[in-house]
Automatic annotation (TrEMBL):
Its cofactor is pyridoxal 5'-phosphate. This is Diaminopimelate decarboxylase. It comes from Methylomicrobium album BG8. The keyword Lyase applies. One of its GO terms (molecular function) is diaminopimelate decarboxylase activity. The modification N6-(pyridoxal phosphate)lysine is found at K60. Pyridoxal 5'-phosphate binds at G239, E273, P274, G275, R276, Y371. The gene is lysA. NCBIfam families: lysA (TIGR01048). CDD domains: PLPDE_III_DapDC (cd06828). GO terms for biological process: lysine biosynthetic process via diaminopimelate. It is an enzyme of class 4 (lyase). Residues 29-369 form the Orn/DAP/Arg decarboxylase 2 C-terminal domain. Pathway: Amino-acid biosynthesis; L-lysine biosynthesis via DAP pathway; L-lysine from DL-2,6-diaminopimelate: step 1/1.
Length: 415
């Protein structure tokens, strides 16, 4: 069996039989490592020692039910942003009392489902949401546990599309409004205030913005205490970055120690909502080269994965490492744009990559475990890729490649 050795990768250290997986399940195909996933989750959980905490993995990063199930078995909580994510987390064995519900646009049916399931907390992001939750909880005869997602107005220093904690962003309750919303909530018959929350952005590579946000939240905690409103938890959201190229984000342990230090002797329970930092480097996207096209101006490696499978390069100009699976190529090195078959000039997975390539070779696009499959689409009527989980020597198919028929079932002709 042809093994692909990832030993140089800090997180994907296992030997993964990529060639065999590609043959068996076809390409493009996402491949994840159970060991890497669990190692990262434990790095977060373990760093808290005996300080009360809950790691609520952000389901949006990768919502495959087998992965959620592995995390649920470790005792993970889940951060969800839709009813679909709630159903996935619960179907995967996630405990409702460990689910926090974020998101700026929660619909009535989503709130009702969350209340009926008995989730841990609604992270409220809009004043109107508080009134809606109070009313719906009253109708159901339950008390809704809530926290406010406060927008602390700190610069996360990340890509503008994934920065969420500035006052011009749509997320959270403005810092200046937070106290009055807490006061309003404290008067409501069907609301129980339990926490405070923020999430300032994604792919942060420095502790500083997190600590600035924490300071602002702690200011509010103190102000609330003075008014007799006691909080049980503080949720600092997700956002810790990973290494795609040469970034050097803090390790979870350093990040958490910095948080605990800043907390001093407060016994507030700390919740975190990491997504990318748990699963990002636990996955690769495997693709096959269909054609090599060399022109006077450019060399294109046309592969069978495309922007519909992995949109990060097209959407954020994100750089992800692309490496050949077989390392014994005799081809000359050239500079390649690695592109997909989709009819968009923006359909690329990497540009200007020096590689030795032959048609039919397999390539691995690294760091694809987060926001890879979950952001994929059927654009150009392309079926979604298969997902495979490697657990020691065994490769388990955890989601079949979509069939062409599945792409149009549900559409109806008008008689
Ligand atoms: C509310 C919330 N929590 C958690 C996350 C997870 O972020 P990340 O994958 O960067 O850890 C996100 C996405 O940015 C989010 O919007
Ligand atoms: N999807 C983004 C991150 C957004 C996080 C969602 N709040 C990415 O791939 O980097």
């Amino acid at each position: 069996m042809d093994y692909f050795n990832y030993r140089n990768d800090e997180l994907f250290a296992e030997e993964v039989p990529v060639t065999q997986i590609a043959k068996q399940y076809g390409t493009p195909c996402y491949v994840y490592s159970r060991a890497a996933l669990e190692r990262r989750w434990r790095a977060f959980d373990g760093a808290f020692g005996d300080h009360p905490h809950l790691i609520c993995y952000a389901v949006k990063a990768n919502s495959n039910i087998a992965l959620l199930n592995l995390l649920a078995r470790l005792g993970s909580g889940f951060d969800i942003v839709s009813l679909g994510e709630m159903q996935r987390a619960i179907a995967a064995g996630g405990a409702p009392e460990k689910i926090v519900f974020s998101g700026v646009g929660k619909r009535e049916d989503e709130i009702i489902a969350g209340l009926k399931a008995g989730i841990r907390c609604f992270n409220i992001e809009v004043a109107g949401e508080l009134d809606r939750i109070d009313r719906l909880a009253g109708q159901l005869g339950v008390i809704a546990p809530v926290s406010f997602r406060v927008n602390p107005n700190v610069d996360a220093n990340t890509h503008p599309y994934i920065s969420t904690g500035l006052k011009e962003n749509k997320f959270g309750i403005a810092f200046e409004q937070a106290l009055s919303e807490y006061r309003r909530a404290a008067q409501m018959p069907n609301i129980r205030i339990i926490g405070i929350d923020c999430h300032i952005g994604s792919q942060l590579t420095d502790n500083r913005p997190f600590l600035d946000a924490l300071d602002r939240l702690l200011e509010l905690v103190t102000a609330l205490q003075a008014e007799g409103i006691e909080l049980h938890h503080l949720d600092l959201g997700g956002g810790l970055g990973i290494r795609y190229k040469d970034e050097q984000p803090p390790e979870p342990a350093d990040y958490i120690h910095a948080i605990l230090q800043r907390l001093g002797n407060s016994d507030l329970e700390i919740l975190l909502e990491p997504g990318r930092a748990i699963v990002g480097n636990a996955g690769i996207l495997v693709t096959r080269i269909e054609y090599l096209k060399t022109t006077e101006h450019k060399n294109f490696a046309i592969v069978d994965a495309a922007m519909n499978d992995l949109i990060r390069p097209s959407l954020y100009s994100a750089w992800q490492n692309i490496i050949p699976v077989q390392t014994n190529s005799r081809a000359d090195e050239r500079t390649w744009d690695v592109v997909g078959p989709v009819c968009e000039t923006g359909d690329f997975l990497g540009k200007g990559r020096p590689l030795r390539l032959c048609e039919n070779d397999l390539l691995a696009i690294r760091s694809s475990g987060a926001y890879g499959f979950t952001m994929s689409s059927n654009y150009n009527s392309r079926p979604r890729a298969a997902e495979v989980l490697v657990d020691n020597d065994a490769a388990h198919l955890i989601r079949e490649r979509e069939s062409i028929e599945q792409l149009w079932t549900g559409e109806r002709l008008i008689p």
